[in-house]
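hey team, just a heads up i'm posting the complex here instead of the shared drive bc the drive is being weird again. everything in one block, sequence lines first with there labels, then the predicted structure for the whole assembly after. its two chains so it's a bit long, scroll down
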Amino acid sequence: MKKSTVIVIALLFSIGLFLYPASAQEAIKVGVILPVTGEKAKFGEIEKKSFEMALEEINAAGGINGKKLEFIFEDDTGRPDVARSAAEKLITKDQVVMLGGGYGSSETFAIANVAQESGMPFLVSTGSDNKITEQKWEYIFRINPPVSDYPRGLESFLTEVVKPQTAAILYENTNFGSSGQKEFQQTCERLGIKVVMAEGYQSGGVDFKPLLVNVKKANPDLIYMISYVMDASLLMKQSMELRLTPKVFVGGGAGYTLPEFQKNAGKASDAVFSATLWYQTLPYPGAKEYYDKFLKKFGMDTEYHGAEGYASAYVIADALKRAKSLKPEDVRGALAATDMMTVFGPVKFIAYDKMTNQNKLPTYVVQWLNDKLELVWPKEVASKPYVYPIDWEKVWK
Amino acid sequence: MDVFIQTMVSGILIGGIYALVGLGMTLIMGVMRIINLAHGQLMMVAMYITFVLYEYFNIDPYFSLLVSMPALFLLGVLIQKYLLNPLLRIESIIPQNQILMTVGVAMVLTEVMRFIFQSDYKSVKTPYSSAVLYISSIAFNFPMLIAFGIAMLLTAGLFFFLLKTDTGKSVRATAQNKDAALLLGVNAEWITQLTYGLGAALAAAAGTLLLPIYYLYPDVGGPFTLKAFIITVLGGLGSTVGAIMGGLVLGVAESLGATYISMALKDAVGMVIFVLVLVFMPGGLKTLTKV
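-- predicted structure starts here --
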């Protein structure tokens, strides 16, 4: 075969490839990166199920302007390097029109980096480290409030109800943990609470007592903890063993709102407060329905991570419907113009503080009461009145 | 002072369990001259056995030692017989291809467990899981005390076996000089299987004892493989007494580090001790003893 013939054939093929995605009835592919194995798999699983549930509903309702929507899930295994290659694979091999998901902050940051470099819109559903939306990256959007906003709802609860003088902050030494710790420290300074101790710890430890004896010695009014679920259960169990009795234990979201926290910590979970981003009884349209449907379908509880996933899927669908074409630039434009109501609350991407393309939402306070998570603050939306002051000896009996 | 005592108590108690994890690996290293990189994963399998027995048959975790240890012994023997020993007969460019095999075994075990139990976190909640003994203001976690006690008993049992029984002596002989042992009629192949089985059973004991105070998911093994490796090296490769000391030293160092330096640097403290011992005492802690 002559060289020129080869070139002509190759050209024909490449034109064919070019035309291929444009042909009708081809599903619109969106890549979703979540940890479904590894330590963070629990959260990833709840989100993945919520994404899938939303996808079924979206496609049943006609998909994206007549075309089917398809989510291609990739597992980041909770490691930034894996997340990075997953993002690269989705962009180059699967040729997705945009990316979604992103659970752990470090992984999300890695994905966001790739997405921005390749000009691929990425809607972050969970990764909450502030710096993810502080880079002026125009292709990165985040539905989840940044970690610094997590204790906003808590602030009013502290100033109006608990009025603590001193606080200790325990956090896992990751992006997520230290970013949350810095922010809470500033919050404390603003509220005139003295931070007597701020200690990081390594996730996955067996014995937290050395850390907790120091806390006990410092005897703070408030203990604020930023942890994933199993560290959270161990921290509370061992606090109970050491009879560590501050006025309140407050979890900074993540582990402290999961059903697994209660299941593993048992009675040590009782009366623990946590900041949270969402609760099923909130007056958002569809919130309760989503919760019930999830419970019925999978026989397990869902919580704010699930709601984030579910809402993300709808935001993605909405943006793709409005986009002039499926070119990244147009999808990006459509995402930026998002203004809709979801089960997770209103979604609109704005710039505030140092962040851009960031959704701003109020946050809430929940408390574990009789093995159940109840929304206790703000009072107007509470599902149960809060229990305070707490008699730990009675709770832990 | 209370803080210091509480820290030491925590460190020693956790050190007892570490020692048990390290012992198994050290035994295998002594006889087979390989690092068993599936050690933590074997522990994980035993934890799942304990979990299933507790969840579905309501068997107390401490009684399930009687099931998990023999089960893991058998698993260990099978792994040695059908996966590790055949590799000895093959000429390969890497003489340590048995170690690579243990890495493979570790991965397979993890993924099989994930397939069966998903990635969910599991834990057993016994009535005594959070029971605490208070001596003045020092808290002794009850399950940890029991775990420490059983760990010491098992260690004593192992020493009795190694020092006083014929089979135990054959194990030591094989560890000292395999060829000579062969010449004197020791069935070395069976001894390797026995040793791997014993090592696995010790890992199983550590896993089962740890479960009431810790939790379980398929990837729980990795960090413990690493801990076992540190302890083994700390103790002086292949020395059982060294492994016990190594375990205790690591436990106490981690606790002290967590209390007085920072919990975030807990693992770093362990590593610093590890490096110091290697630099100033290349033979490991066993050089401090005569055994």
